[in-house]
């Protein structure tokens, strides 16, 4: 097939700025409980995200969280809710145990939570305005899932003028194929995909090696 093995166009490396924030995307128990219709088997990513969160707090940078919630029946979820029946797990009051934040990733007092109904953390929320008001220039991203809400949020971060740093070990997906394809595409076009160790170095010294 023509183009099947064509390499991605060359891209430049984005330099992170001096005013980072951490965005933790949808790290809730629905993706970690084996009986959940949204279970993703991403326990390793949860552990890495908790480590990244600890590093961000130690560095004193802003931390933002997102979750998903719908009115009963999903009237505020539109086509996305109709397309993915498992999102009914996030109807308010239906499965509070699944909608709760994952252990070790619970927001602390003063860390904003942006509740969304669609994939991107920016769509229909005040996240961009909050980040701009704090003069943030760089957004470290952890969360779920790589091919869905993480990818959408990273692309929108780029479009809103923030340098997205997607932390490889701290994002996860149900299958390695969409996970790796999404990281490849993000690195090629929209973001920098960095390791957890690089993220920790950046947070401790505010510069990537």
Task: Describe the overall structure.
The chain has 209 residues and is an alpha/beta fold. The protein has one domain: 3-Layer(aba) Sandwich (Rossmann fold). 34% of the residues lie in helices and 17% in strands. It contains seven helices and six strands. It has helices spanning 43-59, 78-83, 96-99, 127-133, 146-159, 176-189, 196-205; strands at residues 20-25, 63-68, 113-116, 138-144, 163-172, 192-194. It has a six-stranded parallel β-sheet, sandwiched between helices. Strand 1 (20-25), helix 1 and strand 2 (63-68) form a beta-alpha-beta unit. Helix 1 (43-59) runs parallel beside helix 7 and helix 5 packs parallel to helix 6 (176-189). The chain is globular and about 45 Å long. The termini are far apart.
What layout of secondary structure does this protein have?
Blueprint: E1 20-25, H1 43-59, E2 63-68, H2 78-83, H3 96-99, E3 113-116, H4 127-133, E4 138-144, H5 146-159, E5 163-172, H6 176-189, E6 192-194, H7 196-205
Helix pairs in contact: 1-7, 5-6
Keywords:
single chain, 209 residues, alpha/beta, Rossmann fold, 6-stranded parallel β-sheet, 7 helices, 6 strands, globular
Question: Reading side by side through the largest sheet, how are the strands ordered?
Answer: 3-2-1-4-5-6
Rg, Cα atoms, Å: 17 Å
**What is the annotated CATH architecture?**
3-Layer(aba) Sandwich
Q: Which structural class best describes the helix and strand composition? A: alpha/beta
The figure for the number of domains is 1
- Biggest sheet descriptor: 6 strands, parallel
By CATH's scheme, which homologous superfamily applies? Isochorismatase-like
Strand content: 15-25%
């Amino acid at each position: 097939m023509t183009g099947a093995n064509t390499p991605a166009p060359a891209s430049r490396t984005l330099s992170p700025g001096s005013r980072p924030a951490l965005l933790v995307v949808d790290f809730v128990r629905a993706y970690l409980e084996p009986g959940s219709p949204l279970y993703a088997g991403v326990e390793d990513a949860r552990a890495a995200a908790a480590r990244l969160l600890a590093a961000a707090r130690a560095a004193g940078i802003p931390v933002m969280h997102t979750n998903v919630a719908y009115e009963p029946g999903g009237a505020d979820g539109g086509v996305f809710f109709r397309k993915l029946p498992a999102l009914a797990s996030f109807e308010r009051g239906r499965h509070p145990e699944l909608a709760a934040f994952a252990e070790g990733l619970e927001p602390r007092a003063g860390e904003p939570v942006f509740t969304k109904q669609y994939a991107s953390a920016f769509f229909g929320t005040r996240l961009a305005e909050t980040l701009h008001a704090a003069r943030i220039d760089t957004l470290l991203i952890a969360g779920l899932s790589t091919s869905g809400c993480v990818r959408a949020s990273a692309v929108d971060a780029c479009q809103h003028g923030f340098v997205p740093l997607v932390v490889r070990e701290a994002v996860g997906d149900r299958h390695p194929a969409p996970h790796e394809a999404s990281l490849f595409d993000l690195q090629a076009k929209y973001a920098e995909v960095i390791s957890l160790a690089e993220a920790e170095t950046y947070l401790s010294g505010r510069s990537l090696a």
